[in-house]
Structure formats: C-alpha cells, structure tokens
Amino acid sequence: EVQLVESGGGLVQPGGSLRLSCAASGFSFKNYEMTWVRQAPGKGLEWLSYIGSSGNTIYYADSVKGRFTISRDNSKNSLYLHMNSLRAEDTAFYYCARKSILGDHFVDSWGQGTLVTVSS
Amino acid sequence: QSALTQPASVSGSPGQSVTISCTGTSSDVGAYNYVSWYQQNSGKAPKLLVYHVSDRPSGVSNRFSGSKSGNTASLTISGLQAEDEADYYCLSYTSSGTLWVFGGGTKLTVL
Q1: How high is the pLDDT of residue B43?
Q2: Do A106 and B104 lie within an 8 Å CB cutoff?
Q3: Cβ of B100 and A50 within 8 Å?
Q4: Is-contact B36 B46, C-beta < 8 A?
C-alpha cells in the first residue's frame, strides 16, 4: 500500500524557516516524480513545487519561488520542502503527493498533510 | 499563473446530474489533455476521480465522467448521491513556466 506521511509542520514566526519531510513507503520512491501542494484553511488547493525522480528537474509556483526549496533523498525514501522567509499567507496544510508514473500530469496518491501556521 | 476558473458552488438533487466546469487558457486546458479532477471531503486528502481529461482510475464509479471543449474541461456527476457532497478541483499542466495549476474549487451540495 502506498503511504506518504508528512511531518515537520508547526507554529513559526513571520520571517522564519521550517523544513517539511515526507516519508514514502509501499512503492519504489526513486522511480517517481513528486510534488508539494498546499491548502490554506477554508481555501482551495495550490500546487507549489515538483521534483523529478532523480532530483534534477525542479519547478516552483510563482508564489514560493525563491523562498521554498524542494529536495529528495532517494536513499531514505524521503521528500523535503525547505521553507524560508515565511509569511502569514503561507499558513496552510501542506500535502506531499506522488505524480503518476504513466507520463501524464496528475497526482495518484496523497499524504494526509501537515499544518504550518505562520504567526507571531 | 492564475488559478483555473471553476464555479464556487453547484447543487443538485439525488438522482440528478450536475456538471462542474474548469476554464483555463490556450496555455493549459486548451493545449493539452492533461486535465485531472479530484474530490475532497472535509478534513481529508483529495482523491483522484478523473485523469487525462476523461479516464477513470480503477475503483472510481462510472457516475463520474470528464470531457473537454476548447479551453474548458468539465466533470459530470450523474445519479447524484448524498455521499457525493464534497469539494471538487481540476488540475491542468501548463506551459506558462510553472508546471501545474489548480482550479479554485467547487463545492457540491446534494439537496
């Protein structure tokens, strides 16, 4: 069974930093492209970032470009999101998600999310 | 990159059909068949309903169907059931420089 478990969320002050982790199991992590998606409380889904299976190809949404960094460690079956210069508007549930291996562009598995709250 | 445009809410009675639209541009929905749809129940992670505009993963009811015309994709839910009450999101690949873009989401109410 595919499992994606996020961790690292919590309360952080504006301007602060946080690193989210996503532990993957139940599939061959090194073969899959991965993404991060967030959802502010009561709001819609927002795609944030993508990383290729080897980590060589990376994309970001404009809203986080220059502040967030996606990375992965295939030896640890883990995905990461390093978040700097956090703002109140970054408060959201952050989901780790697996991109389909079919060559299409969609998410076929989601984690349960971790909550990041940016507040003083 | 702006979010794809979805109606904020739709509603229907049990047994009826409803259609949720997802309007983009010639850089995303209109240019590629990389449109997918997700159902999200309150407090839960999203669930994949449709991919590649109209394909359904195994285990998803055939009451859910997708289509596309020009820059607008649509999700039709037939034979509405109370359990279909949820939020629905479309997602598209975009050539605008980022990679993906979501729709703003649609809340479905079953009357």
Answers
A1: 86
A2: no
A3: yes
A4: no
